[in-house]
Amino acid sequence: MRIIRKYINSAKPHFIGEGKYNKWFPLFDAFENLFFSTSGKTKNPIHVRDGLDIQKLMVTVWLATFPAMFFGMYNIGNQSLDYLNEINTLNTGDWHHYLISFVGYDNTSFFNKLWFGAVYFLPIYAVVFIVAIAWETLFASIRKHEINEGAFVTTVLFALSCPPDIPLWQAAMGITFGIVIGKEIFGGTGKNFLNPALTGRAFIYFAYPTQLSGDKVWISGLSDNLPEGFSGATPLGVAAEQGIPGLTSSFNWWDAFIGNIPGSIGETSVIAIFIGLLILLITKVASYRIVLGTLAGMILMSSFLNIVGSDSNPMFLVPWYWHLVIGGFAFGLVFMATEPVSGSGTNLGRWIYGLVIGVMVVLIRVINPAFPEGMMLAILFANLLAPVIDHVVVSSNIKKRKRVLSNE
Fold first, then answer.
1. Residue 25 has what DSSP assignment?
2. Which of 87, 215, 318, 398 is the most buried (most CB within 10 A)?
3. pLDDT tens per residue, range 239-267
4. The pTM is what?
5. Both 194 and 292 in a single domain?
């Protein structure tokens, strides 16, 4: 590390002040921050001091996604290699399979399953990361400030929310929309009122709904000449069509909790996601109030609909513990709903914000037959309400204090 530090110190004068490469300072700063924390500290006494700066916060969130990321890659292989092993298709013309052929199609090997998933996930992540950093660099250069670490978290969350067979150009378009429209045009990290990763995900969903509907998901990833059965229904799709009888006959709850089900890359394993939640709660990056509020809203609304029932809509009878483990509920709860910039900032507001998300996700999943997921739209809807929620809470607190002071 001393060698890297020495090299950075020798090159730094060329990128700051009147240095000949000063317009490339954002890229240099991003490279430096990969290895070292900033030495700049808040000095003014009017600021609240905290040992957790934005760089440490974003790195913590990034590391918290690792359990879901690695399990997601393993699950892609686990869901697929059984099918691939039944037919000999080493040379399908799909570039993924040329890479996979290096280790073969052995469906008993943990490494093979992880490698299979990595071949599909890592290109998505690489494209998303490169495109996002390019946009961040452009805006940072124009505004003459450093590249913010928020982009690193946005890229991994967006990539993990995608299906493993998403075309790379669609992934590039989605992250472009999320970074530019969801964040940068409002001033960058800290000024966005929508979650950038979800904004990009919503864009590609509405732009290409047949490919990202949420009711069917890629399983084998092979060429189009394979049987249609290799594109399988997700648990949410089964629940929407057949209700609890179809859901329990097709999937086991424990398998869904562990993550042995089809779905987007990072959303399947509740255990892996909750390991990330534990990290975020211990480090106080995530608010437990939002987490508990969202869980409470989901449990209350789903239980209420269970009691109401429906003769025509089988989703009414799906209990809360199934809502917890299917679709993107757990992933959105842990990594999207708790995002501090676009969520509520007051303690009471966070409870209300979480309740809104929990109630909305069930309403969208159950009442709206055209959209079987719901968590993405529920969080974006709550993002829009967050300023109003905080305004009402703050105004209420001010009125209470005035009444107390007037009685003294």
1. H
2. 318
3. 888 888 888 888 889 989 998 888 888 99
4. 0.81
5. yes
